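Hey team,

Filing this mostly as a record. A colleague (T.K.) asked me to run one chain through the structure pipeline before their review meeting, and I want the input and output archived in the tracker in case anyone asks later how it was produced. No errors, nothing strange. Just documentation.

Input sequence:
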Amino acid sequence: MYHFIIIGSGVGGSTLFKELNRKYPNKRILLLEMGDNRMKYNIIKGEIHVLYITSLGGSGLGAVGNAIRIDLRKVGIKDSEIYEEIERELNVREVPDNYINEGSRLLFDYGFKRTPKFIDFEKCTSCGMCARKPCPFKWTPLRFLRTSNPYSKILFNFYVFSLNKKGGIFTVEGYHLLTGKRMVFQGEKVIVCGGGINSPRILSSILDNEHLGKNLFVDTFITVGGILKNCNLDRSIPMALYKIYSGFLLSPHYSVLLYRSIKREKKDVNTKDIYGIMVKIRDEGKGYVKGDRVYKGVTKRDEKLLSKGIKKASDILQAMGVEKVYKTILRGSHPGGTCAMGKVVDKNFKTEIEDLYVCDASVFPESPGLPPILGIIAMGKKLGSIL
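Output structure:
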């Protein structure tokens, strides 16, 4: 019997694991994770290609270190001091001058700011691979999973297929993905932290809520760019600068997909000559997760925001010297909204079932339109203080 069972080891789950181990050093805490210690990207193809990672550490492993504050009032957090605490803990600082790509310096003329990052710039090699391989010089959820608590346990490669509650005790049932062994765990409290795609899937076995799995947003983005000789964006800190507009964000971003798109036309183009700007919009929560089906389309409002962002980015690129502007497919990498606060969980992250909670991007009632990691850590800390 466990006091707490946490399902999912991403930003929300790892924060709760750390906070609860610190608060209750003598209680039994179990963390269950579907992935293993390899960084595995999942791509759900459709009108928008939705990306997320299943791994110990979740999608936080592929984050590029962005530590931008988001408005948390709609999830019941108003105190800015929680952000100050997190920024100290993650050693957040703005990208130093010597890490700003030469081509990107032109963006200062357009009002771009240095991005705050949870990266150790004393050791960072500026390899440009933040999103594609694990990095020891960047904070990831793995750091929150370290504990000396002998009562705690982490089990990965474990697939949860049902949740039940009887007589005040939860039963979490699943199987080990490598051995196929069926396993059952019991706990007093369960916190689901599977993310915007998997949390509603897990909860569907125990919750009968009409809103569960609906309201999916993904922070839809597209990268536009072209050839800018010797700009070396591929060997630079991703998204080192940013600017927030009404409904969208622009940030310099090297994209392999953009490179491939250009290379089909310009066979001799080199990666060091590709310059891109990401357009990330605050998309509408009009998608859904229902079992194995995931759908997220582009609404008319989304189309307008994308058009505005692409036009703004294209104008900047052409002013920088890019003659022809190319663009990638639409993607989304921050799925959320599917267990929305006020519909599936209350202001304390609790579902309609006593002692069953959700704490990840799925509880956002709408897209923040900005990198959500600091906000999810803040929610994990709040729930940790409640439990």
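Quick notes for T.K.: The first helix runs from residue 11 to 23. The chain has a mean pLDDT of 94.
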